[in-house]
């Protein structure tokens, strides 16, 4: 635990410079003129053949208040866009703690002939209110109001009354607004109005992301709270809940008297809730997810791909996983570092932004771009290779016998699963008979690669917990493992790594010493080219 102070310091620094700066995030302050979009108030400035206008709409009040909240934005109009020659619009917003874009950050989109509307989300930048983490009744209303702004611009291509030709981009929190906006419009209008989305490194289920199996990702809970303190972005109860989760070791659900109920607070805040109510988006999407993402891991993207869109939409969509995302150093257990995007390079000959523009050129404008890879999932390995799969499901079973680890203390242990060469890409899991005789039994599991158990390193930095509040004796369990994409070379092995403690889940191990044992363990792997 010597790393606690250093970890939190690194987390806050990374969050300020990384989480807010998700792949399509702003980096500088803007001053927006307060006013009404309907009345056309705002400042207009011409820059490099682009006209920009800053303004605000008024949206629904904060809970318990009566004053409406300003949601502020900038519209970027390319010179070539006119009423006679309208262009499609791209909506953009920032990551957590960020602000809307300056022109240089979205210049490539303007050069490609798109208009852009970039906005400060509720609680950030010059917008008012607090961040409710994409609540449909609040942030959902905000996005709906901005769609009306776009629908009223005479130089934006329109598919019908109140239906502009429009896509959306943004990463992390900037992916969350895309889902809440499209799903809310689908719920109310019977169609999402957005014609295509490009959500990056974002979530399917917020509670599962922040606390898988009810075990809090402590570093991220504290970091998200700290990153919003300067602007007082979060409601008071969320600050309290995040600190409660970090202190108590459990995701607050209101069951402990005097604590908050984050399960209820976040229930509607993501695609999962809409999916549970029978809604699917029937529009093309370019989903980007980070293989080494420790906050919204690869599995969250897989779930959005499988559950948040229709089968028809998937055939018109592309899933790309790159080495990156919300990343913190993985020291215990030791992980790997990589910052590459071989799949965007393979599909579009460049980075994710180039792939993004080609994708929208094809699905919004109907242009023949030669873009390949639709209907498939393209995953980066740490070795900078791109693996294409049709499904992340496991297809191979490996028996490894008994797996045991100490609880609360001790070093990671690695158990051999398969010899290289082997390629694994998708979502593995393990099954077996679990025994843990203590209280609040916890251990963390992931896949690792190395020549021996002693030098094995965690694949793409992620582990997932088991959480058994009471004693269990020989009970059958299915244990989730982090989704991965990895090539195990000849001469090395794939291992199951088990650890009693984890950097990401700092101080979230078992409260009492003991042993967690899984007998008759079978590791189920998604093997490519078997």
Helix/strand class: alpha+beta
Oligomer: single chain
Using the coordinates above, name the CATH class of the largest domain: Alpha Beta
Shape: globular
List the helices and strands and how they pair.
Blueprint: H1 4-19, E1 43-47, E2 50-59, E3 69-78, E4 89-93, H2 107-111, E5 115-119, H3 139-151, E6 158-160, E7 163-164, E8 166-171, H4 173-189, E9 196-200, H5 206-210, H6 218-227, H7 236-248, H8 262-265, H9 271-276, E10 286-290, H10 298-307, H11 311-315, E11 318-322, H12 342-348, H13 352-363, E12 377-380, E13 386-389, E14 396-407, E15 413-419, E16 422-426, E17 429-436, E18 441-450, E19 457-458, E20 464-468, E21 472-480, E22 484-488, E23 493-499, E24 514-525
Parallel strand pairs: 4-5, 4-8, 8-9, 10-11, 11-12
Antiparallel strand pairs: 1-2, 2-3, 3-5, 6-7, 12-13, 14-24, 15-23, 16-22, 17-21, 17-24, 18-19, 18-20, 18-23
Helix pairs in contact: 1-6, 3-4, 6-7, 12-13
Domain Xaa-Pro dipeptidyl-peptidase-like: 73-317
Protein name: CocE/NonD family hydrolase
Pfam families: Peptidase_S15
Any overview of this molecule?
23% of the residues lie in helices and 28% in strands. It is built from 13 helices and 24 strands. Strand 18 and strand 19 form a beta hairpin. The strands form 6 sheets. The chain has a 7-stranded mixed β-sheet with strand order 1-2-3-5-4-8-9, with helices on both faces. Strands 15, 18, 19, 20 and 23 form a 5-stranded antiparallel β-sheet that branches. Strands 10-11-12-13 form a 4-stranded mixed β-sheet, with helices on both faces. It is globular, with a radius of gyration of 23 Å. The protein starts with a helix and ends in a 5-residue tail after the last strand.
